[in-house]
UniProtKB/TrEMBL annotation:
Source organism (scientific name): Noviherbaspirillum aridicola
The name this protein goes by in its record: Membrane protein
Taxonomic lineage: Bacteria, Pseudomonadati, Pseudomonadota, Betaproteobacteria, Burkholderiales
UniProtKB keywords: Membrane, Transmembrane, Transmembrane helix
InterPro entries, alphabetized: DUF2306_membrane
Coiled coil stretches, renumbered: none
Keyword Transmembrane: yes
Amino acid sequence: MAAFTPIILVHLVTAVGALLFGALALASRKGSNAHRLFGRVWVVLMLTTALVSFGIRKFGGFSAIHILSVVSILAVTASLYAAAHGRIGAHRRGMRGAYVGLAIAGIFTLLPGRRLGDLLWNAVGLA
């Protein structure tokens, strides 16, 4: 199994942080100071996760999974723009969609054959 390089560790830590802070932002009262704080931290973590992913390449090139990083950057940016222009419905849909995309990507990283998945399945003795 390949090593967890520093860039992969940054990607992993920011993704897990984004899952946590995204959940807090979604659970908090919309428009509250807590929602804004959790949301801002989530945006930084999401954008960092997506940007850092471009440094993770198999065989030196980009893969189809990098499309998700581009989509995430666009979704978060468009959602911030929507909120700044009072289009709260668009903001809500975009942020929820980006969070769901993050969660789905997280689930796929736990599949056998992926670094984190192999670590998990070997640790529980199922691989």
